[in-house]
Amino acid sequence: MSQHHVDETALSLHQPHPWAKEGLEIASCENDSWCGFLRPKTDVVGWWWLWPETVQLVQWWKADLERRLKRPLKSSERMLLTSTGSNLYRDSSRNAQSSFSNKWSRLCSRVNKAEGKNAVPGLPFGTLRDQMSNWLGGDQNRAVLASVALAHGIPHKGDKLLFKHYSNRPWAHLFEAQKEYRQLLQPIFDGVPDPLATHDPLAG
Fold first, then answer.
1. C-alpha 135: how far from its chain's center?
2. pTM recorded for the entire structure
3. What is the rounded CA–CA span in Å between residue 132 and residue 150?
4. For the chain, where are the E strands, in sequence order?
5. 67-98, pLDDT tens digit by residue?
6. What is the DSSP letter of 22?
7. Taking the alpha carbons of 70, 74, 79, 82 in that order, is the dihedral positive or negative?
8. Displacement of CA 204 from its chain's centroid (Å)
9. Is 23 left (phi over 0), alpha (psi -120 to 50) or beta?
10. How far is residue 56 CA from its own chain's centroid?
């Protein structure tokens, strides 16, 4: 098995999964998009199939960042940047996600001010990443999927990025579960306007 590295964050849009050519047995084609992630501090690899709605927002976000920064984004840059181009997630900080969390809190406050108190439930910031794993439930097999979805686990000590040490994780089942979860939320998508085709009164 050849060595296959995952960058800190890797976006692979409109293409088969990058590991498919390395032997990962999943159904994948040019209509798919992926996000690979190396979890800070533990260096555990995570992969996620991106919903079409997510891909649309990523493409818009990239174009908007390039417009505001007045330069093309480098492939190694993160998507969540400040207005000056600094990383919103600060690796060197003891509380690395505080800027992101504060940004989210301010956005929720703006929505609540415009739409009415508690329009956005005041749940802890970390609740966002737990939604799918909670939906998967406590069944043993689904619990394994939840763990992979959250990028839990201990990396191989010899070479934490070697593909073969991650090839036996249930990636295919995780990606299928992501598609099932999207179908569960489809009525929400059907009930709201296209956010990129509708004027946002909170923008600016």
1. 17
2. 0.75
3. 9
4. 9-12, 34-38, 45-49
5. 888 888 876 677 777 777 787 777 777 777 77
6. G
7. negative
8. 24
9. left
10. 13
C-alpha neighbours within 13 Å on the C-beta side of residue 83: 2
CA atoms within 13 A on the CB side of 111: 12
The predicted pLDDT at position 16 comes to: 92
Indicate the pLDDT class of residue 4, thresholds 50, 70 and 90.
very low
| CB distance 53 to 166 below 8 Å | no
| Cα→Cα distances 56→35, 64, 131, 187, 198, Å | 14, 12, 21, 18, 14
Residue type at position 35: C
Distance (Å, whole) CA 141 – CA 197: 40
In the DSSP assignment, the letter for residue 8 is S
DSSP state of 74: P
The CA radius of gyration of the chain, in Å to the nearest whole number, is 18
In terms of Cα–Cα distance, which of 83, 51, 52, 54 is closest to 66? 83
Residue 130 structure tokens: 């737990």
Give the range among 13-17, 70-74, 100-104 with minimum mean pLDDT. 100-104
Of 204 and 168, more confident: 168
Q: CA 68, CA 105: separation in Å to the nearest integer?
A: 22
